[in-house]
Amino acid sequence: MQESYGRSAPVRTYEYLLQSPTDEALFDYYFNDQVSLVGLDGKITPIGQPGIHTRATPSPDGTYLLVETVQRPYSYQVPLDVFPSRTEIWNLNGKVLREIRNSHVAEEAPSARDAVIPGIRIVYWRPDAPSSLVMVEALDKGNPRNTVPKRDQISLLSQPFTGAATPFVQTEYRFGGVTWVSPNTAFLTERLSRGAKQRVWMIDPSAPNGGTPKLIWDRSAEDRYSDPGSWVLVQDPATERFVPLRSTDGRYLYLRGTGASPEGDRPFIDRFDLTTGKTERLWQSAAPDYEQALQVVDRDANQLITQRESPTDPPNVFVRSLRNKSLTQITKLSDPAPYFANVKSELITYTRPDGVKLSATLYLPPGYDKSKGRLPFFFWAYPREFQSADAASQLAGSPYQFKRPARQNYLMLLMHGYGVLDGPTMPIVGANGKEPNDSYIEQLVASAQAAVDKIVDMGVADRDRIGIGGHSYGAFMTLNLLAHSDIFRTGIAESGAYNRTLTPFGFQSEPRTYWEAPEVYNAMSPFNYANKINEPVLLTHGQRDDNSGTFPIQSERLFAAIKGNGGNVRYIQLPLEPHGYTARETQRHLLWEYINWLDKYVKNAPPRTTTSATAGSPAPK
Question: Residue 75's closest CA among 16, 120, 117, 127?
Fold first, then answer.
């Protein structure tokens, strides 16, 4: 029996949940634990009472514990991490010194952008203080629709943990984290999902309310080209926690970034001046090599440990001296997959009719040249949502990397005479105040058509012999393309969700529920268009899929729908497999399935009776 009376509690669709009192008893039996202190002599001292503890974190000085304990009633709707729980401060004798948070019902944040649970939602030890807690709670009751001057409150609570917590700083956006540098320096990140806004402030933790914040970066979180990078961290020998590396004079910190640009990624190391808030470029990868910094060796960044590669040289580790301008090779690793050495790879770019720039990695079989004729092709893709066309158009990757096909089954098709287009970008962009999914189908078809037109124009692909596939949301994409276009001859869909009414409280980045946008959910569900899927489909699904929303019944019902409408479909159920397939037997069997399927429906397929997927045409059903 399950009950709910008047309390709005929307949750995503989860699998492997408790289902009965017997499950509850088994959960108690297997998950019950005892927090203990283990001495260097091996002596074990129990601390506190046994329970189901999801966290027992020592304070930096090792004198207290922050403990989170699961409590009843257990939920049959959500997983363990959002069960009712209480968060407490214990001493090493197990005495509860302070209760920080106590939830008596399962709580999960709504799917709406920037919605959070009300009350204290984040608690952790401040890493640069002996025993001080950082606590974050919403000032808008967790509802982003409430108009308030500040969204979140960050407070501090220090030993002996009595009295009220001290307000530290408030944020206009949602709290995104603090990087603690010193007693008087920290970096506060705040962000909003709507608009992909992100700001970083330099604050003074020793001053009331963080002193006078200094704005360091104000940017779009989607904008790879303006990404300043992340702090170079080292382990503090005193606390064993990771902190930003600081120069010997204390003036500089260091940033490591991918260096995304219209020409491709060019990783870098920057030096950040704590006195001015400005950055200085110390080093950046340059053509014709691709080199990324793995670590800064010394506090003044005189030396870097890097990984360097080129289109012809495999990745190896080097020590780069910035002071002496020298480069010393440390490892001498050979080609990890020499069998693929003659596979030609190329980072290609092209443009969608609406002006959004797209990219993909093109692989051609060993020994292929255009004189041998056009190839059958297979695409493998995964859509992503963006809130601006500029961000969606940005290039990822580098033309100077050492390319070898990774261990995905579809890349083995290169050994069987196929060309492969890996990761053709399928951006779904929100525009003019609308959500990205409001025009999901139109943008998806346009991206796929642009990719096909590109490789056909290059003279390497046969337009009439192209298949497409994807995993999870990529499988969902595959079925939508087959339902709403005639671009591809067949599709391979792994572990997808095809009926969005079964994920009614949101999916991927969709912030609306089914009841708020039923037309969007219905239009995006390929199950609703099973009668239009007239290309052959190979469905696979792990029978122990543990991913939110992708129940095996999604593939079972789609198979029945296509079959019932007279379509061509094969459904492979994979025993014991979760969402991502792991067994060697599974991988080998799937490769056999893929090759046989694509040989029949792509490589050796007879010509189409009608030409519906012509260059520049969106090829609608």
Answer: 16
